[in-house]
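Q: What structure does this chain adopt?
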Amino acid sequence: HPVLYGVKERETASAVTEIARAATSSSSSPEQLKATLDQLSKAAQAAGPTGAKALGAQFAKGLPPSIGGFDKLGDLPIPKGPISAALLNSVLTGPGMGDFVAGMVEGAKAAGNPILLGELRQLVEGSSALAVRAFEAAKTKVDQLDSELNALVNGFGPGSDPAELQAAVNSFKERHKDEYAKFEAAGAALTNAVALAGPMLELSPGLDTLVNLKKVIELAPSALQTAAGQQALGNALEAQSRGEPSMLDTLARFSEGEDGEEARAQLMPAITQAIGSRSATLIAEGRPEDADKLIDTLGKNAALFGVDPAQLEDVETALHGALGGAPDAL
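A:
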């Protein structure tokens, strides 16, 4: 990220390390630490996967030897101190914090700090378990609501007044806005868990964690349809168009074989939607060449979808045509 907290790019690394030291010092309050992590979440989301990991690695350098660690209640984490509690909350609520914490893990490894690395492993595993539990509950509720909404819409019949139908739909969504908001929030947490799946596997997980990882990947297509999921996918696709690693590599890695067939089929709509949305944004920003590169990532992900790249050529052509001013191409 070119500018963070008003410093030049070459000064960003040392600035983030100093921010970590200040925010986790004995003179800092939990409120100050939370505010710092909230700002870093925004910076991480804006920086994209590679930038977020770089920020996280520098942040880890400024942490104390121990962040307090976690106890466990079943597979769920119980923070033992204010720093671990704040980090857990941030991973569960802050967009972009999946890649940020992945960078923290890399930073702890590079520093050779086994205590911090062990506590970050607890953070990664525990936050993913909580994310899975929250998303499963929210998705069950929203799936039920969507079924009720479909029944409501079908009850109007083909000759109904469109204005009355729209009013009924709006009223339904307003009555259940809290449930839909919980689903979106849970989607953000699950999206961070997807970003952390790769680092989690590298930390020699136990059987419980491997089972949880499988659930993360199974739920990923639904989570990536949420607002936070689409934002993260857009960032990942831009990174991929520049030849940088991203969560798309993780999804491809975990979606191989027969067990991942259903996930692969469900990922294509989410990724195609993200490509179209982000490409339109890039064009609006006067970056048509970047938009073209982004659209071309569709073919790069053919293996992830379980199809031949040639099968996606028509879709790419339609996207290029539609975003280039030929809407009939779709």
